[in-house]
Specification:
The complex is a heterodimer of chains A (313) and B (529). With 313 residues, chain A is mainly alpha-helical. Chain A has one domain: Orthogonal Bundle (MetI-like fold), CATH 1.10.3720. In chain A, 76% of the residues lie in helices and 0% in strands. In chain A, 40% of the residues are buried. Chain B has 529 residues and is α+β, with helices and mostly antiparallel strands. Chain B is built from 14 helices and 20 strands. In chain B, strands 1, 8, 9, 10, 11, 12, 13, 14, 15, 16, 17 and 18 form a 12-stranded mixed beta sheet that branches. Classes of the chains: A mainly alpha (313), B alpha+beta (529). Chains A and B meet through helix 2, helix 3, helix 5, helix 7 and helix 13 of A and helix 4, strand 8, strand 10, helix 6 and helix 12 of B.
Chain lengths: 313, 529
C-alpha cells in the first residue's frame, strides 16, 4: 500500500512537470498579445512593445520558462497581468463558488442519476425504464447554456425566486451567495445526471444477473435488501468512477454555465484569461486544475478499497 | 443574406464586446429613444445602490493605462479631467476654473484651476497634482503620448494654474484633455505609481473594492466639490445621489437582458438589438437606443503588399458595397445607416467632400481599375475575427465583392487577441477589420489619422490636410478643413469607413435622472424606493 502510494505520487510529479511544460509552451505559441489587449485600440506598436518588455514578455521563451519553473518550485504561480494580484489569490477567490457549485451539482446529479438508474435496471424494458432512458438521452443532449437560459427565464425573471446571475452583492452572507448557485447547480446536475443514470443502470444490470444475487433471493432476502444491499454495493465502483471524474471536471470550472450565470468561478477565470492572454493565470489555473484532477483520481482509487473489499493495492 | 437568427447572434456578440477593447464610446447624437422621459422633473431620491451590468471585467482600473471604454466608463466616476464635454459636445471646464486663455499665436494655454477641490484623501488639489498627472499621462497613455509630441513645456503658475506651451498650434488639445478614454485623469500626486495601486481622484465616487468577475464597488465621496453650473452632458453640477455604484461584469449579453427584465440590474450596457422590442414592451424597463454609436472600418496596408499601390486601394473601395456590408453586419436598418459622410449633418464637421467614391459595389469600374493598376494576382490577405461577429460578416461580403472585381482573396479568420497582434506586422495582412466610435473631435479616431498606426499611412496630402486642420481653432473654418481630410481619405484610401451603427442599452424605470450619453454615468441619478 505504501509502495503503491509512493509510486502514484512520483507519477503525479512527472505528470505535473509535463503539464507545466505543455501548458507554458502551448499558451505562448498561440498568437495574441496581452499587452495589446491591455492597451486597447488606440495604442501604437511602440506602446505595446514597451508594455511587453515591462512584463518580461520580450525575453526568449526558454528564459521565461526557466524563470516560471523556478518560481513554481517556490510555490509562486506568478502575478496576473490584468487582475493586479497574485495568481494564487485570484484562484483562491474563485474557489468558493466553483467548490460549492461542484458540490451541489454532484449532489443533484447523484440524487437524480443513482435512484433512476436503479429503478431503470430493476424494471428493465418497462415503461419506467423507457421514460428514464429518454430522460438520460435528453439530459445528455441538452446544451447547458440553453437549459440555463430557460431556467433563468422561468424561475428568475418570471417567478422571481432566484437571482438571474452573479454571486451576490458586496458583503452579503454565505447563504445569500449560495442562493445564487441554485439555478446553475440544477443545470449542471440535470446535465450530468444523465451519464450517472446510464452507468448505474448498466452496472446494476450486470450485477443483478450474477450468481450471488440469485443466492440472496434463494435465501429469502427481501427484494429491497437484494437490490440495495447485495446488488447496489457491488455495482457502485463504475458509478464512483464516473462521479469522481465528473467532480474533477467541474472543479476545473463549468465554463459555459459559469459564463451564462455570471459566476466568478474558475471556469470564468480561465475563459477571460485565455481571451486576454493573461499567461500567468492560464498557466496557474490549468496547473492547479490538473493537480486536482490527478489527486481526485487517486482519491477515487483509494475509495475503491473502502467500497470493495476485493480490491487491494 | 442573413437569416434572422444569424443576425441576432451576430449583433449579440458584436454589441456585447464592442466597447470592451476596440471602441471608444461615441459622440452619439444620443437619439436616445425612450430616454427623453428619463430626465426627471423632481430631484431624484437620495440613497441606495445601483447594480450596473457591464460587458466584462475591466482590463485595468488605471484610466491612463488602457484606451478601453470599459475602464473609462467606470473610472470617470472616480477621476475627473481638467475639461469635459457638455450635452452638445462642446468642451466645458471641469477641474479647470474656465476655458483656458490662449495666446494669440495659439501656442500658450493658461489654465486656471478651481480652488478648494478635495481629493478622496481629503487633501486639496493644486497645480502640483495636475502637473504630475498630466506628465504621467504624456509618459504612459497612448493618447497622452501623441499629445506630448505637440507640447513644448508644461509648467505650474502658482498653486492654482498651469501653463501649457505648444510647439505649434494644435486645436485638438482641449478635446484630448476632455476625452474620457485613456484619459488625462487628475490624480493625487502622492497616489501616483505604476502600476497604480491607490485610486485617489476628485470624482463624486470613491473606489472601494474590486472583486474580479464580481464587481467594482464605488461609494459616494461626501467631500465632493461640485461645479455649480446646471448639469449638461458630462459638464456642470454633479451630485452623488446613490450611496453606492456596483459595476458588475456580465459578459453574456442574454444574461444582461434577463437581469434587466428581472430588475436585478438597474442598468445594462450594450445589449443585443433583438432584445430591443422585448425591453420596450416591459413596463419596469426602458430601452435606450444610441445612434450613431460607432462605425466599422477597414484598414488597408499602405506599407507592404499589393495595396501599397494607391490605384489598387481605389479599386478595392470601388469594388465594395458598403450598404450590403452593413446589412450583413447589423441586420435591421434601424440599427445602422449607410452614410458616406464621416460626420452627421447636424455636426460642425459635416461634409460630402469625396463621398462620390463611397463604395457602391461597382464591380465593372473596380475591374477596370484593377486592370489599369496591373494587379499581378497576389491574393489580398483579409484579417478578421469572429469575436466581433459583425466584423466577420462584413469580411464575408467584402471578400465576395473583391472576387467579383477580379481580386484573389485570402481570408484569415483569427481571434481578437491574435488580430491586434498581427496587424502590427505589415507582412501578415492587406486589409483588417475593426470598429471605433464617432468622437467629438475628428482626429481622435481612427488612429490611422495619426502617425504609426497599423496601415502606416503617410503622405504629403495627409500631412498638409491634417496640419491645416489642427492649426485652426475657429470651429466654423475647421468644418471645411475637415472636409479636405475626408476627401484625402477617399482619394488615398488608407482606410474605408463602412457606415454607422447604433447601440441598445437598458435602464430600470426606477433609475431616475439618468441621461443617455455614450459613456454611461450615474451621478445626478437616483433610485426610486
Amino acid at each position: 500500500m505504501t509502495r503503491y502510494l509512493a509510486s502514484r505520487l512520483a507519477g503525479m510529479a512527472v505528470v505535473m512537470l509535463l503539464v507545466a511544460t505543455l501548458v507554458f509552451f502551448i499558451t505562448r505559441l498561440a498568437p495574441g498579445d496581452p499587452a495589446a489587449v491591455m492597451l486597447g485600440e488606440q495604442a501604437s506598436a511602440a506602446d505595446i512593445a514597451q508594455l511587453r518588455a515591462s512584463y518580461g514578455l520580450d525575453k526568449p521563451l526558454p528564459v521565461q520558462f526557466a524563470y516560471w519553473l523556478g518560481e513554481l518550485a517556490r510555490g509562486n504561480l506568478g502575478q496576473s497581468i490584468f487582475l493586479q494580484r497574485p495568481v494564487t489569490q485570484a484562484l483562491w477567490e474563485r474557489a468558493e463558488p466553483t467548490f460549492f457549485l461542484t458540490l451541489f451539482s454532484i449532489g443533484i446529479a447523484t440524487l437524480i442519476g443513482v435512484p433512476c438508474g436503479i429503478v431503470s435496471a430493476v424494471w428493465r424494458g418497462k415503461a419506467i425504464d423507457q421514460v428514464f432512458s429518454g430522460f438520460a438521452m435528453l439530459g445528455a443532449s441538452i446544451p447547458s447554456f440553453w437549459l440555463g437560459l430557460i431556467l433563468m427565464q422561468i424561475f428568475a425573471v418570471g417567478l422571481g425566486w432566484f437571482p438571474v446571475a452573479g454571486y451576490g452583492d458586496p458583503g452579503v452572507p454565505l447563504s445569500d451567495r449560495l442562493h445564487h448557485l441554485v439555478l446553475p447547480a440544477v443545470v449542471l446536475g440535470v446535465v450530468n445526471s444523465a451519464l450517472i443514470l446510464r452507468f448505474t443502470r448498466a452496472s446494476m444490470l450486470d450485477v443483478l444477473g450474477e450468481d450471488h444475487i440469485r443466492t440472496a433471493r434463494a435465501k429469502g432476502a427481501s427484494e429491497p435488501r437484494v437490490i440495495l444491499h447485495h446488488a447496489l454495493r457491488n455495482a457502485l465502483i463504475p458509478v464512483i468512477t464516473v462521479l469522481g471524474l465528473t467532480f474533477a471536471l467541474l472543479v476545473g470550472g463549468a465554463i459555459v454555465t459559469e459564463t451564462v450565470f455570471g459566476l466568478p468561478g474558475i471556469g470564468n477565470l480561465v475563459v477571460s484569461a485565455v481571451l486576454r492572454r493573461d499567461y500567468p493565470v492560464i498557466q496557474g489555473a490549468l496547473l492547479v486544475t490538473a493537480g486536482l484532477y490527478v489527486l481526485i483520481n487517486l482519491a477515487i482509487d483509494l475509495l475503491y478499497l473502502v467500497v470493495d473489499p476485493r480490491v487491494s493495492y | 443574406m442573413l437569416r434572422t437568427t444569424q443576425r441576432g447572434e451576430l449583433l449579440r456578440r458584436a454589441l456585447r464586446r464592442c466597447r470592451s477593447s476596440v471602441a471608444i464610446a461615441p459622440i452619439a447624437v444620443a437619439a436616445a429613444i425612450g430616454f427623453a422621459s428619463s430626465v426627471a422633473l423632481a430631484a431624484p431620491p437620495k440613497g441606495g445602490a445601483a447594480n450596473i451590468a457591464m460587458i466584462g471585467e475591466p482590463q485595468t482600473l488605471d484610466p491612463m493605462a488602457s484606451t478601453a471604454d470599459l475602464v473609462g466608463t467606470i473610472m470617470l466616476h472616480v477621476y475627473e479631467l481638467l475639461y469635459t464635454f457638455d450635452a452638445n459636445w462642446n468642451v466645458a471646464p471641469m477641474l479647470a476654473e474656465s476655458l483656458p486663455s490662449i495666446s494669440k499665436d495659439g501656442l500658450v494655454y493658461t489654465i486656471a484651476l478651481r480652488k478648494g477641490v478635495k481629493f478622496h484623501n481629503g487633501r486639496e488639489m493644486s497645480s502640483d497634482d495636475v502637473l504630475a498627472s498630466l506628465k504621467r499621462w504624456m509618459d504612459m497613455a497612448p493618447r497622452g503620448k501623441a499629445v506630448a509630441k505637440e507640447i513644448k513645456s508644461l509648467e505650474a503658475k502658482g498653486p492654482n494654474a498651469i501653463v501649457i506651451t505648444l510647439n505649434r498650434a494644435y486645436a485638438p488639445l482641449l478635446a484630448h484633455l476632455a476625452l474620457p478614454n485613456g484619459f488625462a485623469a487628475i490624480m493625487a500626486k502622492d497616489s501616483i505609481a505604476t502600476p497604480l495601486t491607490q485610486f485617489v481622484g476628485t470624482g463624486p465616487y470613491m473606489f472601494k473594492e474590486r472583486k474580479p468577475d464580481q464587481y467594482v464597488q464605488l461609494v459616494r465621496f461626501d467631500g465632493y466639490s461640485s461645479r455649480h453650473e446646471p448639469a449638461s452632458g458630462y459638464a456642470g453640477q454633479r451630485v452623488a445621489l446613490l450611496d453606492e455604484l456596483r459595476f458588475i461584469p456580465v459578459p453574456n449579453a442574454n444574461t444582461r437582458v434577463e437581469g434587466s427584465l428581472s430588475g436585478q440590474y438597474h442598468f445594462a450596457d450594450l445589449l443585443p438589438v433583438e432584445s430591443y422590442a422585448r425591453l420596450e414592451s416591459t413596463p419596469n424597463v426602458k430601452a435606450v437606443l444610441t445612434a450613431p454609436f460607432g462605425f466599422p472600418y477597414l484598414v488597408l496596408n499602405t506599407k507592404q503588399g499589393p495595396l501599397v499601390n494607391v490605384a489598387l486601394r481605389q479599386a478595392v473601395q470601388a469594388a465594395l458595397n458598403d450598404a450590403d456590408m452593413l446589412g450583413a453586419g447589423f441586420g435591421d436598418p434601424k440599427f445602422y445607416s449607410a452614410d458616406p459622410n464621416h460626420y452627421a449633418r447636424n455636426t460642425p464637421f459635416y461634409s460630402m467632400a469625396g463621398t462620390e467614391f463611397y463604395g457602391k459595389g461597382d464591380a465593372k469600374k473596380a475591374a477596370a481599375l484593377v486592370a489599369a493598376a496591373k494587379y499581378d494576382g497576389t491574393p489580398i490577405k483579409i484579417l478578421t475575427s469572429q469575436q466581433y461577429d459583425f466584423h466577420y460578416r462584413i469580411a464575408l461580403v467584402m471578400a465576395e465583392n473583391l472576387k467579383a472585381a477580379g481580386f484573389k482573396v485570402d481570408m484569415q479568420v483569427v481571434d481578437w487577441s491574435t488580430l491586434i497582434q498581427r496587424r502590427n506586422d505589415p507582412a501578415l495582412w492587406d486589409i483588417y477589420i475593426t470598429h471605433s466610435a464617432v468622437l467629438p473631435e475628428p482626429t481622435l479616431t481612427p488612429p490611422q489619422l495619426g502617425d504609426g498606426a497599423p496601415g502606416w499611412w503617410s503622405s504629403p496630402a495627409k500631412d498638409a490636410a491634417l496640419a491645416a486642420f489642427n492649426a485652426e481653432s475657429d470651429s466654423k473654418k475647421r468644418g471645411a478643413l475637415w472636409g479636405n481630410i475626408q476627401s484625402v481619405v477617399y482619394t488615398e484610401v488608407p482606410y474605408i469607413r463602412v457606415g454607422n451603427f447604433n447601440s441598445v442599452t437598458a435602464r430600470s424605470a426606477k433609475l431616475e435622472g439618468y441621461v443617455a450619453m455614450p459613456w454611461p454615468f450615474f451621478w445626478n441619478t437616483g433610485l426610486q424606493k
